[in-house]
Design goal:
The protein has three domains: 158 residues, Response regulator (Rossmann fold), CATH 3.40.50.2300; 271 residues, Alpha-Beta Horseshoe (pyruvate-formate lyase- activating enzyme), CATH 3.80.30; 33 residues, no CATH class. 41% of the residues lie in helices and 18% in strands. The chain is built from 19 helices and 19 strands. The strands form five sheets. A seven-stranded mixed sheet has the order 3-1-4-5-6-7-8, sandwiched between helices. Strands 10-13-14-15-18-19 form a six-stranded parallel sheet. The longest helix is centred in the middle third of the chain and has 18 residues. The protein is globular.
Length: 498
Amino acid sequence: MNILLLSMPDSFEHMPTVAIRMPNAALTSLAGNIDPHHKVAIADLILVQARVRETVERLMREIDPDVLGLSVMTFQRKTARKIIDLVRSLSPDVRVVVGGYDPSLATEAYTDISWGGVDFIVRGEGEITFRELLRAIENQSGYDRILGLSYRSGDRFCHNPDPPVSNLEGDEIRLPNRNARVLRGYTALGRQVDVIETSRGCTFDCSFCSIIEMRGRNFHTYPLDRVIADIRDARNHGARAIFIVDDNIMLNVRRFEALCQAIIDAGLHDIDYTVQAMTSVIANHGEQLAPLMRQAGFRYVFLGIENILDEDLTFLRARRKNIKREDGHTAGNAAIKAIDFLHRNKIYVVGGLIIGNPNDTHASLEANIEFARAYVDWPYIQHPTPYPRTPMTKDFRDHGLIINERLEEYDGTTAIVRSEHLSAEEIEFRRWRADRWMKLRHLPVAFAHSPFFVLHNGLRMLAHLLRGSTLKSLLGLEDPRQAFERYRAIRQAEREYL
């Protein structure tokens, strides 16, 4: 059969596509784990945001798929529905499969009669379920035996039991198939970028996170030789930068140290690596770990600071991830110590913070923003967002704090909830006003690393950062809220891809 796999064009505000366009890791893994007699093509629509319709129409003509698969996050649901409607108008008989976080955790949204274009929903980890689904489609039977599958039967959906999570051992999950990609242009500041995965799962229960609902509280790892083979394959496909997408790679710090050493020993430390990390691990092990990371090629660390105030960390259920220890005792927040270790080893910090929590005030917002100004290199400040089935969502609904049900705006940087003391608009305005200037400070670093890219794209990068601003607003001659309202209008228009 011919298989076409699509990721949605909707992007996060913190990852402007002029500078960063990442491939979808799940789709390449799906493509690598189906039976080899199928012809599979992957299209990351983030590469063609300005021409989504014409690209989908072209791919439908050229590939003539028997099965169309879409990977969907919550804020991409509206776009996914439009793409399915378009595909159905072009090819009424194509089998449509949806998967990813949103279909897995909000399955009922895709079984509604208004979503008549969906035939199958792959819930949870998709590789084995999708492989077995393709076999069942070929045999035209056996859907009821596939764990993790929801399927249309007449005018209703049947839901099979959830599958067990994979322990990632042996060859049950094979390497990704990067040859299946049919679009080009993945970039991180001008360097071709790819993604790899070394582990899955997390044993923490942060209130904002969907991982526990997807997998339960567990942590499984790939063998390091398999990880090195994946990195080498990415480099052979042109990657000079790699983002490690693991949920929480730092749960086993000794294994991560071994991975760094394996990268060095394999001669793969000429790649720029980015990884997500807990502050506690870096703070408590950074003296040995940070120099090893730098030697292995780690250039950026997305640091899960979450918040610098204990009350907010308690609400986010993230205090244990952010504890510094000294002489065997708890010694406060680990963020500053972790950042110091990374900076001493010339590793840049992408600071992950969440502001706009239920008890936040002007003072608590400013405390976190001032921390970001003082310590992080690239702010990744988000607002708490009620994604399906997270503990946070129930809490916000119970307290009547959700003020926005437009899912296309559930992108982390649109304030969806108010606090007990501040409106959602005020929270978002304060983040936006500070965020763009902090990001602007990082442009000299980007220039030093990729001068030709910045020279060629610098004006576009500036235009993105300062969307909504005019000379008058930049000179302080008008209320900054007017620029903010223009920015919001621009951002809303950008969400329309079809």
